[in-house]
C-alpha cells in the first residue's frame, strides 16, 4: 500500500487546515500518517506520530524531534511527504533526504515566508538562507500569495524544484455565509450587544503580530465620538492578559469585548458589521476570507496576505500598518455611508469565491497528481 506523511509542528495545524487533503489521500487508497506534536485523534489518519517539535528552531527538544522523525521516515517507505510550518518542514526535509533517492516526493507548503517586503533584517538573515538551502531537499514549494510565489520562483526553483501558487488551504463556503435575521438578533443578545450597535470583529490569536493593541488604542478615540461602535476580539494568546489590562486602563470595557476561544465564529461573524485586521504580516488571512464570505465589508492593514483578498474601495479598505488616523477615517466613512456598506458587502461575498475549499482542493489535487 502506498503511504503519505503529513508533518506540522502541532496537531491543531493539521486539524484546522488539512483534513480535506488527508481525506483525499485516504480515498485514493493511501495509508495516511501524521507527524506533529500532540496526542489528538486526527480524522483520516491511520497512524499518528507524536513528535517533540517546538515552534522556535532554537529549542533543544527539536534535537529529539529530529531523531524521532528519522526513525519514522526510516521505518516507513513513504511515497509522498507533505510538510508544513517552519520547524517541522526543515526537520522533515532533512530526514527525507536519503529516501528521496528512492523515489519519495517531498512537498512543502509555505504558509507565509518570514522574510517579505518590509520584514526586519534579522528575518532575512535567518530565514532566507535556510529556505534557500532547504529548496535542495524539496520537489515542490507551494505558496499561498503572489509575493511569496514570485520570490520562490526566482530564488528557489530549479530543474528539481518547482514552485506553485494556490488559493490558500480553502474555506468552506457552506459554513461561512450570511445568516437569517432571526438568528442575528438572538446571537447579539447572547453576547450582550444591542441591535443598534455597530460591531467590528477581529478573530485572531492575541499576539504581537496580530497587533490587537493598535485597535484597542484606536477604540479609545472612536468610542468618545461613536459610543455605539463596539469591537469584538475573538481568540486567546500570550498577549491576552496585557490586552485585557489595557482595556481596563482606558475604561473601554463597554466598547471592547473579549470573546475568548470560540468554535461558533460561523454564527458570530454574520451578526457583525465590519471585519477588521491590524496584523503586521500574513501569508493569506483566512479570518478575512471568512468575514467576506459572510458578507462583511473589510477594513484591514496593508500587507501581502491582505492584498490577495481586499480590493481597495470595492470590497473594503486597506490602511497603512499602525496608521491610526487612516483607520479611524475609514471606520467613520463605512459607518456613516450605508450605501457604501451594502456595496462592499455584496462585493465581498463574490470576491472570495476562489478561496473556497472546493477550489483549493482541486488546485492541490493537480499538484499531488504530478508527484504520485
UniProtKB/TrEMBL annotation:
Cross-referenced SUPFAM superfamilies: UDP-Glycosyltransferase/glycogen phosphorylase (SSF53756)
Domain Glycosyltransferase subfamily 4-like N-terminal stretches: 3-145
GO MF term list: glycosyltransferase activity
InterPro entries: Glyco_trans_1 (IPR001296), Glyco_trans_4-like_N (IPR028098)
Pfam family for this entry, one: Glyco_trans_4_2
Transferase is among the record's keywords: yes
CDD domains assigned to the protein according to its UniProt record, in alphabetical order: GT4_CapM-like
Keywords recorded for this protein, A-Z: Transferase
Residue ranges constituting the Glycosyl transferase family domain according to the UniProt record: 188-349
Protein name per its UniProtKB record: Glycosyltransferase family 4 protein
Lineage of the species this protein comes from: Bacteria, Bacillati, Bacillota, Bacilli, Bacillales
Domain of life: Bacteria
Amino acid at each position: 500500500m502506498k503511504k503519505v506523511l503529513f508533518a506540522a509542528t502541532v496537531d491543531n495545524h493539521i486539524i484546522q487546515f488539512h483534513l480535506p487533503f488527508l481525506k483525499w489521500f485516504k480515498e485514493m487508497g493511501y495509508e495516511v500518517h501524521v507527524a506533529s506534536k500532540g496526542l489528538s485523534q486526527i480524522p483520516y489518519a491511520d497512524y499518528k506520530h507524536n513528535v517533540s517539535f517546538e515552534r522556535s528552531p532554537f529549542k533543544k527538544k527539536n534535537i529529539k524531534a529530529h531523531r524521532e522523525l528519522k526513525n519514522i521516515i526510516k521505518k516507513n517507505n513513504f511515497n509522498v511527504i507533505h510538510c508544513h510550518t517552519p520547524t517541522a518542514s526543515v526537520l522533515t526535509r532533512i530526514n527525507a533526504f536519503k529516501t528521496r533517492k528512492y523515489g519519495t516526493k517531498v512537498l512543502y507548503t509555505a504558509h507565509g515566508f518570514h522574510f517579505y517586503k518590509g520584514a526586519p533584517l534579522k528575518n532575512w538573515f535567518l530565514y532566507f538562507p535556510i529556505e534557500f538551502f532547504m529548496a535542495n531537499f524539496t520537489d515542490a514549494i507551494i505558496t499561498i500569495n503572489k509575493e511569496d510565489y514570485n520570490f520562490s520562483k526566482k530564488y528557489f526553483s530549479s530543474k528539481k524544484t518547482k514552485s506553485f501558487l494556490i488559493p490558500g488551504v480553502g474555506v468552506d463556503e457552506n459554513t461561512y455565509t450570511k445568516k437569517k435575521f432571526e438568528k442575528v438578533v438572538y446571537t447579539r443578545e447572547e453576547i450582550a450587544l444591542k441591535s443598534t450597535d455597530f460591531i467590528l470583529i477581529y478573530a485572531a490569536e492575541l499576539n504581537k503580530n496580530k497587533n490587537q493593541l493598535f485597535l484597542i488604542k484606536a477604540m479609545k478615540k472612536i468610542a468618545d465620538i461613536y459610543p455605539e461602535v463596539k469591537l469584538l476580539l475573538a481568540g486567546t494568546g500570550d498577549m491576552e492578559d496585557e490586552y485585557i489590562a489595557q482595556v481596563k486602563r482606558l475604561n473601554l470595557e463597554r466598547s471592547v469585548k473579549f470573546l475568548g476561544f470560540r468554535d461558533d465564529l460561523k454564527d458570530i461573524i454574520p451578526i457583525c458589521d465590519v471585519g477588521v485586521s491590524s496584523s503586521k504580516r500574513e501569508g493569506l488571512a483566512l479570518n478575512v476570507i471568512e468575514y467576506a464570505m459572510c458578507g462583511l465589508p473589510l477594513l484591514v492593514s496593508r500587507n501581502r496576505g491582505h492584498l490577495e483578498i481586499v480590493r481597495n474601495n470595492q470590497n473594503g479598505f486597506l490602511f497603512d500598518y499602525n496608521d491610526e488616523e487612516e483607520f479611524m477615517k475609514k471606520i467613520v466613512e463605512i459607518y456613516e455611508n450605508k450605501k457604501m456598506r451594502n456595496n462592499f458587502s455584496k462585493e465581498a461575498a463574490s470576491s472570495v469565491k476562489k478561496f473556497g475549499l472546493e477550489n483549493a482542493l482541486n488546485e492541490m489535487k493537480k499538484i499531488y497528481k504530478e508527484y504520485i
